[in-house]
Amino acid sequence: MLDAFGQPQSVVVLGGTSDLAGAIVEALVRRRCRTVVLAGRDDQRLGAAATAATATGAQHVSTVRFDALDIAGAVATVDDAFDAAGAADLVLLAVGVLSHERDELDPERTAEVVTATYSWPATALTRAAARLREQGYGRIVVLSSVAAMRVRRQNFVYASAKAGLDAFSIGLSEALRGTGVAVQIVRPGRVPTKMTEGLPSAPMSSTPGAVADAVMAGLESGAPVIWVPPAARWAMGLARLVPQALWRRIPG
Ligand SMILES: NC(=O)c1ccc[n+]([C@@H]2O[C@H](COP(=O)([O-])OP(=O)(O)OC[C@H]3O[C@@H](n4cnc5c(N)ncnc54)[C@H](OP(=O)(O)O)[C@@H]3O)[C@@H](O)[C@H]2O)c1
User: Fold this and answer.
1) What atom in ligand 1 is closest to the CA of residue 17?
2) Homologous superfamily in CATH for domain 10-247
3) Sequence ranges of the domains in the chain
């Protein structure tokens, strides 16, 4: 059960090998979380993430294999993860694939990015919401992005999928009102992780630790949207008003 400060004792991570998820799981375990279920596609990376969670102090750590390109398998993946957890206080959605300009010319790559960043997460979150409703309590934290707020030319395939996921999460949050289950959306700026390796620095950047701290504070406050850094909220509010002719000239 979530404690009085909103801190979970068990977490299911969809995208359990994500660098950001790793920082968030570490922060959760340092507080009260003792049961960690990591779902991912790569045994070696899952093993490393499980070892890290155990080293931090998690007592029950298990892993579940899935591929986010397999939408038909999403329900079974979520069920396996919930069954491994016993009960899930928190579901963290961290799956996602960044697109680059070269991907625009490749329909298969476009389908992969959209499937792993939007379609699989939306399917899995629908099942996770049903499982949490059965429990009668729980939180869902979705890693969205500032990129979802105003699509840029450089990564529009990814950003459009994130925009879909962000909108889906807002709708899911509304649908779950009054059920005891809440959805929180995290919108980080660029963070140095394996997803952004080799990319230049950008405005509104932060660190995995800062994202984890913001999520911990958000769990406590119950804020429906968690911006990292907080100023991104105002910057992206303004960005949405900038005419496209000007927006395309702004570096980032
Ligand atoms: N880093 C940033 O600047 C930033 C900013 C805003 C939002 N975000 C979001 O934060 C989340 C975590 O990103 P991150 O920065 O931590 O990058 P990351 O380490 O690359 O995490 C992405 C996760 O998605 C998983 N994934 C990708 N394709 C998959 C597939 N087909 N099947 C199963 N799992 C798959 C990855 O698995 P593998 O480990 O096996 O690759 C990894 O666990 C993502 O949703 C991302 O969009 C990141």
Assistant:
1) 43
2) NAD(P)-binding Rossmann-like Domain (3.40.50.720)
3) 10-247
Instruction: Answer yes or no: is the C-beta of 42 below 6 A from any ligand 1 atom.
Output: yes
Q: What is the pLDDT of residue 5?
A: 66
The CB of 19 under 6 Å from ligand 1? The reply is: yes
Q: How confident is residue 50, by pLDDT bands cut at 50, 70 and 90?
A: very high
Question: How many alpha carbons lie under 13 Å from residue 51 in its C-beta half-sphere?
Answer: 6
Task: Kindly give, in sequence order, each residue whose CB lies less than 8 Å from that of residue 192, ignoring residues fewer than 6 positions away.
Answer: 205, 207, 208
67 CB under 6 A from ligand 1? yes
Residue to mutate, 14, 17, 66, 117, ligand 1, most ligand atoms under 8 Å from C-beta: 17
Single pTM value for the model: 0.97
Residue 101: predicted pLDDT: 86
Residue type, 149: M
3-state helix, strand, coil in the chain (%, to 5): 50, 15, 35
pLDDT digits (tens, 9 = 90+) for 67-100: 999 999 999 999 999 999 999 999 999 999 999 8
